[in-house]
Specification:
4% strand, 12 helices, 321 residues, mainly alpha, two-stranded antiparallel sheet, single chain, 4 strands
Length: 321
């Protein structure tokens, strides 16, 4: 009896992410109070799909391989477009550009393009290390100082009473289930939340800011969405528990520094900075591996490695990072 091939948990996670963010957008425009025009998510999706397909076609030709959207029929095409779908909806949902539609579409294009511009060899293949939607948002926030992120109240604008708490509760429950069972990023969330609380208290003691107000940020729907659906992106975060904790804690730490320096939109800039630091670290690991393999240089000896070759722990990190 022939066994069915095991389902790829990454595809399952992407499908559930795509379904979740689609439902959230539908609810946002019909019930919650999203501020953007209702047609904009459709334009964002069309732009994301187009950029993803064009860049994949160019990349496949340059790398002498078949495009990844071919060979699996309609299902394969849909699965290939999951990341673009998620990125496009996230960028449109989290940015407020007034009536400047081209700016929002530019942010989507930048977000998708970042997956091709910022890549590092890991375990024999190139992987992107910048969180796509976060990267697109951070870039346009820097280029266009007049725009802003979407107002947090849009997620519960038309709700009253207990309904104000139902929305974040549902996001927390489903987001936690998704990250616990499929992405395996609970250690990252623990590091992010733990250090976020710590930096809030430290800022209150050192800079005399309101500690309750700093902690109250964690109760907003935007923060809950960021925690469960952006910072935990499995494609641009570590897999090992300790590395996850360090990544999440690092984002919170950088956020605290930026906020203490009165830099707004710290969540997005902090995530971009930590992703960039991680990318540099992965490139350094790759350089050590190449030097050891080719014998063109002697890498510095690590603990337990007297001959200067790459220690097993570093090799495992290359594979799991």
């Amino acid at each position: 009896m022939t066994q069915k091939p095991a389902k790829d948990p990454r595809i399952t996670a992407l499908r559930r992410f795509a379904i979740s963010i689609t439902i959230l957008n539908i609810a946002g425009y019909t019930v919650l109070g999203f501020e953007q025009a209702w047609a904009w998510p459709l334009f964002a999706i069309a732009t994301g799909y187009a950029v993803e397909l064009v860049l994949e076609t160019i990349g496949a030709r340059a790398e002498h391989r078949p495009p990844r959207y071919r060979g699996g029929g309609l299902r394969g095409l849909v699965e290939f477009l999951y990341p673009a779908h998620i990125t496009a909806l996230a960028v449109n949902m989290l940015l407020y550009v007034n009536d400047r539609l081209p700016v929002m579409l530019f942010a989507v294009a930048v977000a998708i393009s970042g997956k091709w511009l910022f890549r590092v060899p890991v375990n024999g293949r190139l992987r992107h290390f910048m969180n796509p939607s976060n990267f697109g948002i951070a870039v346009v926030l820097l280029l266009f100082p007049w725009l802003s992120i979407s107002p947090p109240y849009q997620f519960t604008e038309y709700l009253e009473g207990p309904a104000d708490w139902i929305v974040p509760a549902v996001i927390v429950v489903f987001g936690t289930m998704l990250n616990a069972k499929l992405t395996g990023r609970m250690w990252l969330i623990a590091g992010w939340l733990g250090v976020f609380v710590l930096q809030s208290v430290v800022r209150g003691l050192v800079l005399d800011t309101s500690i309750p107000s700093a902690l109250a940020t964690m109760t907003g729907v935007a923060f809950v969405l960021f925690t469960n659906y952006m910072i935990t992106d499995p494609g641009t975060t570590p897999s090992r528990p300790l590395s996850q904790f360090a990544f999440g804690g690092g984002v919170a730490l950088v956020y605290g520094v930026l906020t203490g320096a009165s830099i707004v939109y710290g969540l997005f800039f902090a995530t971009a900075i930590v992703c960039l630091i991680r990318g540099g670290f992965l490139w350094s690991l790759h350089a050590v591996r190449v030097a050891a393999r080719d014998g063109k240089g002697t890498p510095p000896a690590a603990p337990g490695s007297a001959d200067g070759t790459v220690p097993p722990a570093v090799a495992r990190e290359m594979v799991r990072a």
